[in-house]
Inverse folding.
């Protein structure tokens, strides 16, 4: 085994009373299993897989220390001996794999989605339905006691430590910042009073758990909201936390109500490591940095540059539980890389569904979606090497089937080859790289540039049709005859150069992506990205916000949809607002409730709210959905061949990689 490639990442971390086996912290993620029936059994398998994969220290999803602190009325709470006994399954499973695990204690404060919400002051957050009640001094002291009791119970449950959630705009953070703390008693007013809660919290927890127990404090180093903390205040708080017994300081970036992206795929890799670095020389306890760290090399670069002592990665461990083990074995190319899409993790959790992963649908389904070795020798043909075909081919081969994969193109990846050319979606090429590697390792026979015929497939036991989609051209008079019209696939694939005035028809995910591509600045490094979002690198301004002059595209773009209402959100629940804001900043005109009348030499004739308009455009890009490329299945069934249709060939609709990859792996598990 050669671990020389990542010496800093794989170095142990001595905490005095205990040692972590490397510098990797698996950041807290709510999975939805915390509240589900039989959830702890599934959660144990989930965390055990990550411990087996080499993570140095795991942090659980957030558990509330009392009822009022719950995010939802039915959210997970950790406040009783019964809860401690139930959690033993989790800690025992992690320890059996040589790992360490800490329980995150999180009080939602004004983010609570129930009428019993409490906070420092009675100020409703912009993303909440309920106005919280202002906590009395007695309630504050009882809440501190509840945290301390929960921490003691966590130790009894076998946890190696706790993480106290003091960032992202939750209760503790709400006390720290003027934005949400308008009190004039000993818990408000001066900064010393506003940080009294986190200090007293840590004191009480340390008194209960003793010296030999890890206390991580997640400190908001960059609030990204008005009336947030300055760098000087963050340093002051960090030093006080060190004095009262915090073991590790973990970085928190941005409140949930902040209007700046912090973890979406558009955010550059390691975009906030500089924030942690600012605190590095000010304290003597280990610092953890976080956000958009998704490869061993990115992590190694941060640690070797002394920007932090540990790196926190959360979603990368959904994508690949063996991330650390593969880094240790110098097999970084074998890692299934997180692409930062949020579509199966955060988007699920925010609507009360179980989290998983677009590129790894087995995440959080370790006990259910199992690829068992096949008992029989069977040959499988898979037609189409897009995301669905690739996932199915690899999963079938992992089970031990003999797999042949056909594609009429001379490359694999399908629609992902288009996605990776969209600014901010470059990560999609990592998924193609991973699947290409797995095809080699699992012995799949790949036949590219081969448009297969039904007669060629008679000898196979099963045939999987995954031929994908093609753009749908809507029935607009003049659309088929105009030189101005181009479909999105041709535009992206052939890198077609368009004029300065462009209309985009269809405002789903593809239309949003195309509009972003057409208005992207020529060059955007990290500093330019931070400036574009108004982030002050000195953090001298409150919350680290200092709006700069924004980039406006020289190209005029109209993004339109037939449906009335908001335009430009794209498909992602947690990322839609980012897409819309980017387009608005760049000057894209967003039009809903549009009727497309005709296309001629004058341009695109439309009707909006009863008013006729002619858009004098150079080009019109069609992003109005897709239709299936599927002509094989009927012929195969006529030949009495076992046929399965998956992916876009099954349901065209809006392109949904999450759906098609899960469908592919589920089929492979059933065959």
């Amino acid at each position: 085994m050669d671990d020389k490639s990542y010496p800093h990442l794989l170095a142990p971390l001595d905490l005095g009373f205990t040692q972590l086996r490397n510098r990797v912290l698996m950041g807290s993620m709510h999975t939805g299993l915390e509240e589900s029936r039989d959830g702890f059994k599934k959660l144990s398998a989930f965390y055990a897989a990550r411990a087996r994969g080499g993570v140095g220290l795991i942090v659980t999803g957030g558990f509330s220390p009392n009822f009022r602190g719950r995010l939802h009325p039915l959210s997970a709470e950790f406040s009783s001996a019964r809860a401690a006994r139930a959690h033993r399954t989790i800690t025992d499973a992690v320890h059996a794999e040589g790992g360490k695990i800490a329980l995150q204690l999180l009080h939602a404060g004004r983010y609570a989605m129930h009428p019993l919400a409490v906070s420092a002051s009675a100020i409703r957050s912009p993303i909440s339905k309920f106005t919280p009640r202002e906590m009395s001094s007695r309630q504050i002291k009882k809440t501190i006691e509840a945290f301390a009791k929960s921490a003691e119970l966590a130790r009894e449950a076998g946890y190696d430590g706790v993480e106290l959630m003091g960032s992202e705009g939750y209760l503790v953070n709400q006390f720290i910042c003027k934005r949400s703390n308008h009190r004039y008693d000993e818990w408000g007013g001066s900064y010393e009073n506003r940080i009294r809660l986190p200090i007293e919290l840590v004191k009480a927890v340390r008194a209960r758990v003793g010296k030999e127990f890890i206390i991580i404090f997640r400190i908001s180093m960059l609030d990204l909201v008005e009336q947030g903390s300055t760098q000087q205040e963050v340093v002051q708080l960090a030093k006080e936390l060190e004095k009262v017994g915090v073991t590790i300081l973990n970085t928190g970036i941005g409140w949930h109500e902040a209007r700046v992206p912090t973890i979406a795929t558009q955010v550059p890799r390691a975009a906030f490591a500089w924030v942690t670095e600012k605190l590095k020389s000010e304290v003597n306890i280990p610092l953890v940095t976080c956000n958009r760290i998704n490869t061993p090399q990115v992590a190694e670069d941060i640690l070797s540059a002394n920007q932090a002592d540990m790196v926190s990665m959360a979603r990368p461990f959904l994508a690949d539980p063996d991330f650390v083990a593969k880094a240790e074995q110098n097999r970084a190319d074998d890692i299934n890389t997180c692409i930062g899409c949020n579509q199966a993790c955060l988007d699920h959790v925010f609507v009360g569904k179980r989290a998983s992963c677009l590129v790894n649908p087995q995440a959080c389904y370790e006990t259910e979606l199992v690829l068992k070795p096949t008992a029989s020798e069977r040959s499988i043909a898979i037609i189409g090497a897009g995301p669905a075909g690739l996932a199915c081919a690899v999963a079938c081969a992992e089970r031990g089937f003999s797999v042949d994969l056909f594609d009429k193109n001379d490359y694999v990846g399908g629609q992902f080859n288009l996605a990776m050319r969209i600014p901010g979606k470059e990560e999609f090429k990592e998924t193609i790289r991973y699947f290409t590697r797995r095809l080699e390792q699992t012995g799949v026979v790949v036949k590219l540039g081969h448009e297969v015929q039904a007669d060629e497939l008679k000898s196979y036991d099963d045939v999987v049709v995954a031929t994908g989609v093609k753009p749908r051209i809507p029935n607009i008079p003049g659309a088929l005859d105009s030189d101005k019209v181009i479909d999105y696939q041709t535009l992206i694939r052939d890198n077609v150069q368009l004029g300065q005035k462009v209309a985009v028809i269809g405002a789903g995910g593809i239309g949003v992506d195309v509009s972003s591509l057409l208005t992207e600045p020529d060059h955007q490094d990290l500093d330019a990205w931070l400036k574009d979002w108004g982030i002050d690198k000195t953090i001298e301004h409150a919350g680290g916000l200092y709006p700069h002059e924004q980039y406006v595209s020289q190209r005029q773009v109209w993004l339109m949809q037939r449906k009335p209402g908001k335009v430009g959100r794209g498909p992602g629940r947690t990322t839609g607002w980012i897409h819309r804001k980017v387009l608005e900043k760049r000057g894209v005109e967003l039009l809903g409730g549009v009727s497309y009348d005709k296309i001629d030499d004058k341009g695109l004739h439309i009707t909006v709210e009863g008013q006729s308009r002619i858009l004098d455009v150079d080009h019109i890009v069609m992003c109005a959905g897709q239709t299936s490329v599927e002509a094989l299945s009927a012929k195969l069934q006529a030949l009495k061949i076992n046929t399965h249709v998956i992916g876009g060939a099954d349901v065209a609709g809006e392109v949904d990689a999450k759906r098609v990859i899960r469908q592919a792996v589920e089929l492979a598990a059933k065959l």
User: Anything to note?
Assistant: The first helix runs from residue 39 to 52. The domain at 379-470+627-670 is CATH 3.40.50.720 (Rossmann fold). The mean pLDDT is 95. The chain has three domains: 13-349, 379-470+627-670, 485-624.
